[in-house]
Write a structure and sequence with these properties.
By secondary structure, this protein is an alpha+beta fold. It contains six helices and eight strands. An eight-stranded antiparallel β-sheet has the order 5-4-7-8-1-2-3-6, with no helix packed on it.
């Protein structure tokens, strides 16, 4: 078989260009082997159309198509989720599938954290204003703490409120002792946190106020530890 004979299938399928088709037609006249194969293949091709049997579509085909078209939005993610989960478990080992799932969860967590961070940064750009300021004076004019004083401020930024307490010349603490801040209203106290002063006797505290934190006075006591649910020690300073 020469190189021209190899073009028989291409000639039958119409893949040859005009020039190549003309050249093969001339070759077909001269080559008895190609002529014989051409006739056999043409006869087989023409008989294929008689081998097909026309059938009516199944009765369920219409309902299957319509169910797919009118599938609800809730059903689509579930179906796709099952499809993708099945794909992963077919393609990867259980260990690899678990690692991929862990990576996807991590990516989701990072994206959520990024969104939260953007919200916090946006809040930083909101103006901050002092809505209340209170002067803190010594509870007892003793030689130990007569110079102790400070101030408390309520700052508001957007919908958030924070209490800032700053005090100077605090007596030093021993071991587990702490200073504890109390918010007072109508004789009721609410714990606002504890702090320890530095070596110079300066202490500060920042406390995020909730909607329920309503008060008109502040008191600061020296407590034996940070576990006090009500004052156990001496009151050092407070607002008037």
């Amino acid at each position: 078989m020469n190189t021209e004979c190899a073009n028989l299938l291409s000639f039958l399928s119409g893949e040859l260009g005009k020039k190549e088709k003309k050249a093969f037609a001339e070759h077909l006249i001269q080559c008895s082997e190609c002529t014989k194969e051409y006739e056999q293949m043409t006869e087989a091709w023409d008989s294929l159309k008689w081998d097909f049997e026309e059938k009516e579509p199944s009765s369920s085909l219409k309902s299957e198509v319509m169910n797919f078209v009118f599938e609800t939005d809730d059903e689509v993610p579930v179906r796709r989720g099952k499809k993708w989960s099945g794909f992963f478990f077919r393609q990867f080992t259980p260990v690899t599938s678990g690692l991929l799932l862990a990576v996807l969860v991590l990516v989701f967590v990072l994206l959520y954290s990024n969104i939260q961070l953007k919200k916090e940064l946006a809040a930083i750009n909101l103006p901050m204003e002092v809505i209340t300021s209170l002067s803190l004076q010594p509870a007892n004019k003793t030689a130990v703490n007569m110079n102790t004083d400070g101030a408390a401020y309520i700052l508001q930024q957007g919908e958030e409120r924070r209490l800032i307490v700053q005090i100077q010349n605090l007596p030093s603490l021993q071991d587990s002792e702490v200073y504890q801040v109390w918010l007072l209203r109508d004789g009721k106290r609410r714990n606002a946190g504890t702090f320890k002063p530095d070596e110079a006797g300066t202490g500060s505290l920042t406390y995020k106020l909730s909607i329920d934190d309503k008060f008109n006075q502040i008191g600061i006591t020296k407590e034996p530890d940070s576990n006090s649910t009500k004052p156990r020690g001496e009151k050092i300073v407070g607002s008037s």
